TrEMBL record, chain A:
Keyword Cytoplasm applies: no
InterPro entries xrefs: 2Fe-2S-bd_N, 2Fe-2S_ferredoxin-like_sf
Designated name of the protein: 2Fe-2S iron-sulfur cluster protein
Keyword Oxidoreductase: yes
The organism's place on the tree of life at top rank: Bacteria
A Pfam family reported for this protein in Swiss-Prot or TrEMBL: Fer2_4
Keywords, sorted A to Z: Oxidoreductase
Signal peptide from the UniProt entry: none
One Gene Ontology term of the molecular function aspect: iron-sulfur cluster binding
From TrEMBL, chain B:
Top-rank taxon, per record: Bacteria
Pfam families hit by this protein: DAO
GO MF annotation: an example: oxidoreductase activity
Name of protein: Glycine/D-amino acid oxidase-like deaminating enzyme
Annotated organism of origin: Acidipila rosea
Domain FAD dependent oxidoreductase: 6-349
Keyword Oxidoreductase: yes
Upper lineage: Bacteria, Pseudomonadati, Acidobacteriota, Terriglobia, Terriglobales
Gene3D superfamilies per record: D-Amino Acid Oxidase, subunit A, domain 2 (3.30.9.10), FAD/NAD(P)-binding domain (3.50.50.60)
Length: 80, 375
């Protein structure tokens, strides 16, 4: 298993330790996971899949809970 | 001490709030009573589809009249009401239903409702997430959607601005003959009592031709553009509107937030408000038959509620002949959001002695009394 994984967050290539969640990748890229109805940036809150604050678009699929999904090589993650 | 009013409305759902607003605007000293959440009863069980429906000439007249009242009010509604004129597509699955599209087209046109017929290709273009192979649809451009509870709250606030008093948190123990007793000890004296208690109306006024009819709803997360019009299967009148038995129908709605509201189900004789997986599964299977991609979306909430159904699918609007102080504004079943404004206006016109815009007769509660006398 490689020690690091490379993926894109909002089009920018970043590298994270293997085993990192997508939420971690987004935080290290300083990218909000999503933008609320009123235009506020949102990020992980509970970190355990309950609060749904950390939803983002992963490989084109919206509303993925980034705190529950591990980064994979070549993943394309976008702020929702 | 007894408080005196010209009119006391029971129930601050969308119908009761609209009635209180009309009464207050007409200069009547008005009170409105709500035991629970504003718009939390039958109103919360509604999808918020402002729809012209043609099950009977009286239904067409009432829904069209009320749709026009909503259209007039739209610019004054707060953003929270999420009003949007997205139009309705009545979806025809096959050629047989396409024939029904053409019949409905004539009927709507004769009532002055703008309509358009979409063929198979036009329907694909209008709603790419519907499954291929559907025959076409009837588009009613003037239909709209709104958030029922927020709209009820707005109508209530307007009533209060016009001087109406809200009595919240207590329920009515007894009402009739110009007086009401509440569970918190309050008593009211009123020239007119308006029972707008939705599915609970029958508990306050015995003998009403109202049955509770349960419905399930599901709402998804935000997927803007996935659905563009309120989509209803044309078989809806056959399936969901049959007067007996449980039924489900394909009925999805785009919310202004990008969420998709999914219906619909109807059950008689079910008292428990719990979500039933049997009904929910049947409902979602039906939706999946028309819109397979919806299975990939995240649903975030499901709930149920009770609507007030009458035997002829028309509401009860007007005097209860057994009590000169008692008036009814209930029995709207699945059309209460649409017809709330017309209901309130018809009732206010009746109180004022003004000529109504459409005849009140088909909705008078006395139609069932007459039937009973002839039985």
């Amino acid at each position: 298993m490689p020690e690091t994984i490379s993926l894109t967050v909002n089009g920018n290539r970043i590298t994270v330790p293997s085993g990192a969640t997508v939420a971690v990748a987004m935080m290290s890229a300083s990218a909000p996971c999503r933008v609320s109805v009123s235009g506020k940036p949102r990020g992980p809150l509970c970190g355990m899949g309950i609060c749904f604050e950390c939803r983002a678009v992963i490989d084109g699929v919206p509303h993925r809970r980034t705190c529950q999904i591990l980064c994979e090589p070549g993943m394309d993650v976008c702020t929702q | 001490m007894t408080q005196r009013y010209d009119a006391v409305v029971i129930g601050a759902g969308i119908v009761g709030a609209a009635c209180a607003r009309e009464c207050a605007q007409a200069g009547m000293r008005t009170a409105i009573i709500e035991q629970g959440t504003i718009g939390g009863g039958a109103t919360a069980a509604g999808m918020g589809h402002i729809v012209v429906m043609d099950d009977s000439p009286a239904q067409l007249a009432l829904t069209r009249y009320s749709q026009l009242l909503w259209s007039d009010l739209a610019s004054q509604l707060p953003p929270s009401a999420e009003y949007e004129t997205c139009g309705t597509l009545w979806v025809a699955a096959d050629e047989e239903e396409m024939a029904e599209v053409l019949r409905k087209q004539e009927l709507y046109r004769s009532a002055g409702v703008p309509v358009e017929v979409l063929d198979q290709a036009q329907l694909r273009e209008a709603e790419p997430n519907l499954r291929p192979g559907l025959a076409g649809a009837l588009l009613i451009q003037s239909d709209a959607v709104l958030y029922p509870s927020a709209a009820a709250l707005h109508l209530l606030n307007q009533a209060i601005e016009q001087g109406a008093d809200l009595c919240a948190g207590a329920h009515v123990l007894h009402c009739g003959n110009g007086s009401l007793q509440l569970s918190d000890g309050t008593t009211f004296a009123a020239d007119r009592i308006i029972n707008a208690a939705g599915a609970l109306a029958g508990a306050l006024t015995p003998g009403l031709q109202i049955r509770k009819r349960k419905g399930h709803l599901v709402i998804t997360d935000r997927y803007p553009g996935f659905v563009r019009h309120q989509l209803v299967e044309l078989g809806y009148l056959k399936s969901a509107h049959s007067v007996s038995g449980d039924s489900v129908a394909f009925n999805v709605q785009p919310r202004k937030t990008g969420q998709i509201l999914i219906g619909s189900s109807r059950q008689y004789d079910e008292e428990s408000p719990g979500i039933e997986s049997r009904i929910l599964t049947a409902m979602l299977d039906r939706v999946g038959q028309y819109m397979p991609g919806i299975a990939e979306l995240s649903a975030i909430r499901s709930w149920t509620g009770f609507r007030a159904a009458t035997p002829d699918k028309l509401p009860l609007i007007g005097p209860d002949e057994r009590d000169p102080t008692l008036f009814l504004a209930t029995g709207h079943e699945g059309l209460g959001i649409t017809t709330s404004l017309a209901t309130a206006r018809l009732l206010a016109d009746h109180f004022r002695g003004a000529a109504p815009a459409i005849p009140l007769d088909p909705y008078l509660p006395s139609r069932f009394a007459a039937e009973a006398a002839h039985a």
